[in-house]
Amino acid sequence: MTLGPSFYGVGLGPGDPGYVTVRARDVLATADRLVHFCRKGQRGNARTIADHIIGADPAREIALVYPVTTEAPVADAAYAGPIAAFYAESAALLAAEAEAGRVVAILCEGDPFFYGSLMHLWRRLAPRFPFEVIPGISGMSGAWTLAEAPITWGDDVLTVLPGTLPEQDLARRLKDTDAAVVMKLGRNLPKVRRALEAAGLVGRAIYVERATMAAQKILPLAEKTDDEAPYFSMILVPGEGRRL
Ligand SMILES: C[S@@+](CC[C@H](N)C(=O)[O-])C[C@H]1O[C@@H](n2cnc3c(N)ncnc32)[C@H](O)[C@@H]1O
User: Fold this and answer.
1) Could you tell me if 36 and 44 are in contact, meaning their C-beta atoms sit under 8 angstroms apart?
2) 237: β partners
3) Which residues' Cβ are closer than 6 Å to ligand 1?
4) What is the number of other CB atoms lying within 10 angstroms of the CB of residue 154?
5) What pLDDT shows up at residue 72?
6) How many CB atoms lie within 10 A of CB 73?
7) Residue 104 and residue 5: Cα distance in Å, rounded?
8) Which of 1, 28, 58, 67 lies 20 to 30 Å from 44, alpha-carbon distance?
9) How far is ligand 1, taken at its centre, from the CA of residue 116, in Å?
10) Please, which residues bridge with residue 105 across strands?
């Protein structure tokens, strides 16, 4: 494949390298720079998925290390200030790569336009450079497929909620939907569980951790007795709509 645009936002799917698209594989094989987001001292999840396909490649890799992650609430100036500066500096760094004639692939777990960090770079760079985004299978799609839990039937309404929302907002929205996916679980699990209880949905809720990955865990939420959940976990509430 001959690469046209300066930038690619590459969706790599939920974890299993078998779910990486042909187009994403082509870009991984040929881009001059492979960019990934990560926490300090850790390899990013998207890069870990790419490792299964192309292995480590230090000459092409650029790691963008978040200055803060979950230490401060997103609404705090302590989070918003450093993270906005980080995205602006990262965009400037990558713009210089593109200006030097290099093709830059930014790796994304799942689908890039679904709660993806890439979006903050894309909105800064796409007005200035040709920028192609390659869709990926989202984590929630991987989760409900591996859980064998069709998420919407008939006219079911699906609500996708970040577990970071306040408990009352979660409960209100859960009461008002047919099916739900609660993302960004991690330390929000006890709060999300209470909101599901308030909405009368614990009995239908499925806990999914690291869907499609080697360490995947799937179990009814009612059977999960501890409150430990990694960042890569979510809760599914499948709809109960029309069965024909
Ligand atoms: C910042 S969002 C990124 C979503 C991603 N762009 C996607 O399309 O799925 C991160 C959240 O996605 C969810 N997630 C993504 N992939 C997952 C997986 N394989 N297993 C469980 N949860 C996953 C988790 O709830 C995690 O907190």
Assistant:
1) yes
2) 180
3) 14-15, 109-111, 114-116, 138-140, 142-143, 183-185, 208, 210-212, 231-234
4) 11
5) 56
6) 10
7) 9
8) 1
9) 9
10) 8, 34
